[in-house]
Amino acid sequence: xxxxxxxxxxxxxxxxxxxxxxxxxxxxxxxxxxxxxxxxxxxxxxxxxxxxxxxxxxxxxxxxxxxxxxxxxxxxxxxxxxxxxxxxxxxxxxxxxxxxxxxxxxxxxxxxxxxxxxxxxxxxxxxxxxxxxxxxxxxxxxxxxxxxxxxxxxxxxxxxxxxxxxxxxxxxxxxxxxxxxxxxxxxxxxxxxxxxxxxxxxxxxxxxxxxxxxxxxxxxxxxxxxxxxxxxxxxxxxxxxxxxxxxxxxxxxxxxxxxxxxxxxxxxxxxxxxxxxxxxxxxxxxxxxxxxxxxxxx
Length: 298
Known about the structure:
By secondary structure, the protein is α+β, with helices and mostly antiparallel strands. About 55% of the residues lie in helices and about 10% in strands. It is elongated and about 70 Å long.
């Protein structure tokens, strides 16, 4: 299987400091400024890095090869931010006079090793996800549905790739089409209803929301397999039809019960005090895909 990885922003935690990371060329790349803040508590990491490069001429010479601008989720949306892989971060740390440097090196090596393990054994990522969901207080039944939703999502994005979908924004738009048809709102609007910001939407869905989300995506997958749409326009039409199947079922249930399926309930504050969702903290397999399995629309 092609192991090119979608560039999704995740959150790692070092001593209660958030460090954003993303998969690039099949390995973790870390936001350099986040690392500097974690090690130095600097309020102006950009200035700190500038002064550091002036002090270390060798670092300055090779800095362009060490860092790479990658798309990272920021408060203002996705933006290109300087990132470095494990080797690059190790080099930068050499120029940081901080007592936290050695513990950080050990932490970084552990994060990188776990990533290698998950590439070699994709099931390991799901096992870790199950354990973290459990630790955060999610019910067993919900965890099983969440893991099943990941598998359904993977199958759908596999089909999208086979049928000509390549760009990240196309996956996001197709996901939004399914969501609008299934729930009557886009994923971004759904997150607002739940009071979410950077959190993963599906990690905060109720049982019913997950079920209808799965129905919409599974239906889209089956229609795609049957009709073989090609390119973005045809796949967008199929995505809407697949979402409508879930939407019709949702409306029928709401009519019968008198209650809305989409609710403001979420899992914020439940379980442990990890800063970030389970799928922010480790890979679950949803990001292990060739420019696909996008959670960009979530």
